[in-house]
Structures
1.
Amino acid sequence: MRIGFFDGVREIGGNKILIEENGTGIIFDFGKRFSINNTYFNEYLVGRDWKGVNDYVAMDELPPFKNFYRGKLPLVKEPIDVDIKAVFFSHAHLDHIGLIDFIDDSIDKYMSNYSKEVLSFFIERGIIKRNISNVKIIESPVQIGPFTVSPILIDHDIPGAMAFKIDTGEGTLFYTGDIYFHGRFSERSFSFVEQAKNAHPYILITEGTRFGWGFVTSLTEEQLKEQIINVLEQCGGILFANPYEPHISRIQTFFEVANEKKRNFVVTLPYAFILKHYSDLGDTFAKDILSSAHTFVYKPGRELKDWEKAFDSKFVDAEYVSKNQKNIVMLLDFLSTPELIDIKPERGALYVHSGGEPLAGLDKDNMDILSNWLNLFNIPYFRIHSPGHAAQPDLLRMAKEINPEILLPIHTQIPERFEIVSNNVKILERGIMYDF
Ligand SMILES: [Zn+2]
Ligand SMILES: [Zn+2]
């Protein structure tokens, strides 16, 4: 068996993992690297469309996988000669799913039902550029050639996140995806660790995002709620909140703040899209929020699309929000920031940034723009957030407990940190097919 890691090596995000046995391959995640890792291309300078993916392959920004990319054009480079049958997506963050539109339509793409809805959100927002074919929901083990892939639900800061168990001819592998131990669904992550430990795995491929981050602990949603209520009580005006749109647990936290403070809950359309789609899957949090008599959808002045018109009975406009500021908690996504002009925030307004774009530390330009807006309106900015990744002690505990024969760290800047608890760590290099 061979395994290759293309991005996500000594960096956070961009995971692309190829596992091959007897010429048959499966891939885990096909993510975009964060923009700080851009070398030759960015959102402005992109590969020439008529070359397919070949500009990216030529510049070593995409691996030369044979018959894998859309249109199956011949590659400019000697291809990796593996017959890739399927791609499995651990969750729908862009650093794991963001390059899905480069993959040929004929290839099966497995993901959770939630990830599929988030994918439709990215397509609606134009973040992923085209519709994706052959998306399959994975809920039970799938057999692909010599591999049996079993999904295991875990906790992360997006719903429907999964780890995978992969049975191969050489032994059992586990891949954590991105994992978290302090959220609303963290019993799933603990039970994943238990399952992996009991399987005495050959290989564990694990994330290590927070190695090197200065703080040790994570805050629970309950603790975040307390902090939010504390600043809200001091300021007293309208609370603008900016959580990441697909992060339903965090949306729920702001909804609870609104309920406890007897305020109405107003959301912009991107949040309404997510709430509607999760609700259609049967998500009880999303259903409760959307069906509450105190939840409203903010209607922009522009012409509405068909799906947006479905919120007709819930719409409130800028004038309503402006007149009822002290009675409102409003989810305001970053791209809707100019609505502040019409809302005319009064004294006491506050802004809580909680994981939504721009990503603090990764997107300085947009952080500056946001802060200019808030300063102009004299709105204090509070970052009240807890990342959806295992804290450093949790990572060490997980690695120690699972105790694989070989530990492969990815999605981390400091893979060596696992050596504190394991003698079996292999430090990877990007783009090499390793024999196991
Ligand atoms: Zn990630
Ligand atoms: Zn993630």
2.
Amino acid sequence: MDVQALQEKIEKKSRELGFTGFGIAEAELSADNAHLQDWLAKGQHGQMDYMARHGDMRAIPSLLQPGTVSVISVRMDYGNDDTQAWETLNNPRQAYIARYALGRDYHKTLRQRLKKLAQYIESEIGAFSYRVLVDSAPSLERALARNAGLGWIGKHTCLIDKDNGSWFFLGEIYTDLPLTGTAISTQGHCGTCTRCIDICPTQAIIAPNRLDARRCISYLTIEHQGSIPEEFRSAIGNRIFGCDDCQLICPWNKFAKRHVEPDFMVRHRLDALGLIEAFAWSEAEFLHYTEGSAIRRTGYLNWLRNVAIALGNAEPDTETLAALHNRAEHESPMVREHVQWALHKLQARISD
Ligand code: B12
Ligand code: SF4
């Protein structure tokens, strides 16, 4: 088998399938594993027990897929209009949903395309051992992508590409094929810039490359179950699902291209959703508007919880107060508690 020729063919096919970056990583991640274990030992993963569940499997690909010697790592862009994102963030009547969740759930799109890529390889060389991953099994996707030459891990911990910024998803194929590593340089280019650290509303980036997930709005609004600690509620602002501030401020995203992937086009005008409308959705409406979307992960009650916080951070006008009063007797104690917090906050502002 001419490995180089095969690799070129796989890369060409990956572009046809909509992937915007391609590389081969060696499966050695011991230094990253040490950082992961330290992060877990300090409890910085919060309630994300799945991050601790698999021992070393997350950092040693062959423990997950026996025989793995190389990893095909790919990137798919989802970048959009940053100006519109800032406008939404600065409008307290609007709901801010992280850019990555405005279109189709990326797990579905990347998985399907990666399967097609694997089938293509099979058509070229016959049966081979592989496993397709998109955040679907324990893996250190950013470290693998960095080792494949797709970019460097920025101070905010996202992977950044010099020519395309950080608005992209990652996916992998673990394989027993002895492909040749494509890493060019894993050196970072953040320099002395600390804009992501400075802008983070909840000071979640506690040091360069160190994210305390328990403080991160993305974690709090998506992964965290139950009551959101009060100390973070005001800082959450109008971010009702995920957060993009550390990427929006990153100078490297000036070079990000807008995506052209139909799957990631904004659905149901979720980029222009009003908070009052979002709060009025019934569960059936929530399920309808989030069908096939990553937003489903948070569930209806957490959605109401998050929107209640954002309403508490909005202006204390009649409509906002009425929307909150409408949910004040909600059957969920968690929703009621967040509604009460929001009403108290708005009342206090009226009395000031
Ligand atoms: C858990 C998780 C989260 C958690 C925790 C985030 C985090 N930083 O760990 C939460 C819910 C907060 C989150 C948020 C987001 N996430 Co997320 N998340 C993941 C997930 C499942 C695991 C990440 C992980 O391994 N964390 C463990 C910690 C320890 O990793 P780390 O801090 O990055 O440290 C690593 C390196 O930096 C390195 N390292 C750090 N310091 C040092 C020092 C030395 C000396 C060395 C050698 C190495 C080293 O070692 C670590 C292991 O590689 C991945 C998918 C996957 N399976 O990989 C997606 C993933 C990272 N998330 C993604 C996205 C898009 C997001 C959000 C942008 C979504 C949003 N808009 O709300 C935010 C970004 C927030 C942020 N600043 O990171 C993308 C990132 C794409 C990219 N360009 O980087 C991924 C890859 C999913 C995907 N398949 O595309 N996420
Ligand atoms: S996603 Fe938001 S809260 Fe999380 S580290 Fe980035 S700026 Fe901070």
